[in-house]
Amino acid sequence: MAFHVRLASPPHLTEQLVEVLAEESGVTHVVVLPGSALQPGRDTVPAAAVPSAAVPSAAGRHVMGPSDTGPFDAVQFDVPLRSANAVLGHLGAIRDHHGSSIAIQNVDAILGEEPGAAAKFGFVQRDAAPVWDVVEARIRSNGVYAPSFFLLLALAGLIGAVGILINSQILIVGAMVVGPEYNAIMGVALGIDKRDRPAIRRGALALLSGFTAAIILTLAFGLAIRWSGATPEEYSDGVQPVAEFISNPDLFSVVVAVLAGIVGVVSLTQARAGALIGVFISITTIPAAANIGLSMAYGSWAGARGSVSQLLLNVAVLIVVGALVLRLQRFIWRPR
After folding, report:
1. Cα Rg for the chain, rounded, in angstroms?
2. Fewer Cβ atoms within 10 A, N terminus or C terminus of the chain?
3. CA-to-CA distance for 184 and 138, rounded, in angstroms?
4. In a structure prediction context, what are the per-residue pLDDT tens digits for the chain, which is 336 residues long?
5. Where are the alpha helices (DSSP H) in the chain?
6. Which residues pair with 56 in a beta bridge?
7. Which residues 6+ apart lie within 8 Å of 331 measured at CB?
8. CA of 18: how far to CAs of 24, 31, 210, 276, in Å?
9. Cα(264)–Cα(280) distance, rounded to whole angstroms?
């Protein structure tokens, strides 16, 4: 697996940038299109507005250049995962000093690519180090709390409420998959890891607001079903295996939340989306929020209290485990 990288380079830094890329192992398909990177309304940059910048060379030196006054050069190349952290570190000077964004695309396969040493001599290969710039950008991009975030959370709560009423585990699983709350949970975990208080506040507020909306909606739904007389007979008779499971957190709830938290972070850092879906199915957050509303609608205050405990337990454990595993992976994959 590799990345295809595109960026706009100031003309006076392009030659040095290409030299740095040439010295990095694995960088291929370097393409430079001089003067072709235009930004509408910003294709001419006054010299005074663009500070001098440094591009670190592979040897760790910094090469200074004069400010540029015209369109930037478009530079694109492919880089394997094993070299991505070093290369993106070199590109940081351009990104930070010139406000030039870096576009990164996943390349699933490269025809003709030689296998690594691990692939030649053993069937178990060592994972590549997480590309932290990409991991953090992915978490931040998923941590955008638009109206659709709260809508999906509320609708997931309704699906979960129906599943609880008719004792349908399939609907409970569907509600878990639909709910987008894990994005906010990882946003808070990354904020803790990076000591980013605004990110922590945004994520915590999104979780609080979203779950509150889901609880209120399921409460209204439960009251409507109760008053209409459409409550399923088994639920009315107290046969509520799904609700009882949700409202009685125990040691195994903690174990599952810890394991799901570990799997979630590893799947994000190693870009394994299939495992991430399993995390959504494992955590009892949306079903707990749904059961809070339903229990309140039917006057089951013990069930509501138990579901609140389940919800808080899962969210807290996922956030703490997420932050700890992110920090642990940074330590394991630290430059040596």
Report:
1. 25
2. C
3. 12
4. 788 999 888 888 888 888 888 888 788 889 999 988 776 555 544 443 444 444 444 444 344 344 444 578 889 998 888 788 888 887 876 666 655 678 888 887 777 666 554 444 454 455 677 888 888 888 988 888 999 999 999 999 999 999 999 999 899 988 988 888 989 999 999 999 999 999 999 999 999 999 999 999 999 999 999 999 999 999 988 888 888 989 999 999 899 899 988 988 888 887 776 656 666 666 789 999 999 999 999 999 999 999 999 999 999 999 999 999 999 998 888 776
5. 11-23, 81-98, 117-121, 132-142, 147-165, 169-178, 181-194, 197-228, 233-236, 241-246, 251-269, 273-282, 286-297, 301-332
6. 62
7. none
8. 10, 9, 47, 37
9. 9
What is the separation of C-alpha 258 from the centre of its chain, rounded to a whole number of angstroms?
Answer: 18
Q: How far apart are CA 235 and CA 166, in angstroms?
A: 7
DSSP string for 258-272: HHHHHHHHHHHHTT-
pTM for the predicted model, two decimal places: 0.78
Q: At what angle do helices 169-178 and 273-282 cross, to 10 degrees?
A: 120
Architecture of domain 2-128: 2-Layer Sandwich (3.30)
- C-beta of residue 214 within 8 angstroms of C-beta of residue 161: no
Q: 79 - beta bridge partners?
A: 3
Q: Which amino acid does the sequence have at 232?
A: P
**Cβ neighbours of residue 194 closer than 8 Å, sequence gap 6 or more:** 136
Q: Where are the domains of the chain?
A: 2-128, 137-332
- The neighbouring-strand residues paired with 7 are 75, 102
Q: Which two tokens stand for residue 225?
A: 């079903």
Interatomic CA distance for residues 176 and 153, integer angstroms? 10
Check: CB of residue 77 under 8 Å from CB of residue 5.
Answer: yes
